[in-house]
């Protein structure tokens, strides 16, 4: 990967990392407020435990997903520093520029990504 392209990708990764870090922090800060309940806008009777657990579970899942994505971005930044960014972590082939543009944090070429997903 050319130096200019690598720097562009790295800058994109830093921006994504910073945005995700802020979002994760904001979501974590909001959890205690959601857990304590903030009042209903609806007059439909629901049990407080149902309402709180559904909302809280959804928030926790979003936090988990955002943290996982943040870890992928951090790993991609490490690959940039190590000189392995753009190489598939499975087969060693080059990850296409189009794929890196769409998913700058991806560790796999499209073929290996499909294999990894199928194995899950």
Would you write up a description of this structure?
The protein is mainly α and 120 residues long. It is 71% helix and 0% strand. The chain is built from four helices and no strands. It has helices spanning 3-36, 48-82, 97-102, 110-119. Helix 1 runs antiparallel to helix 2 (48-82). The protein is flat. The two termini are 30 Å apart.
Summarize the structure.
This protein has helices at 3-36, 48-82, 97-102, 110-119. The protein has 120 residues and is an all-alpha fold.
Mean pLDDT: 86
How many individual β-strands? 0
Number of helices: 4
Distance between the termini: 30 Å
Structural class: mainly alpha
Compressed to H and E, one letter per element, the order equals HHHH
Low-confidence stretches: none
| Share in helix | over 70%
- Share in β-strands: under 5%
- Cα-based radius of gyration, to the nearest Å: 19 Å
Large-scale geometry: flat
Question: How would you characterize the largest beta sheet?
Answer: none
Task: Give short descriptive properties of this protein.
mainly alpha; 71% helix; flat; 120 residues
Strand-helix topology:
Elements: H1 3-36, H2 48-82, H3 97-102, H4 110-119
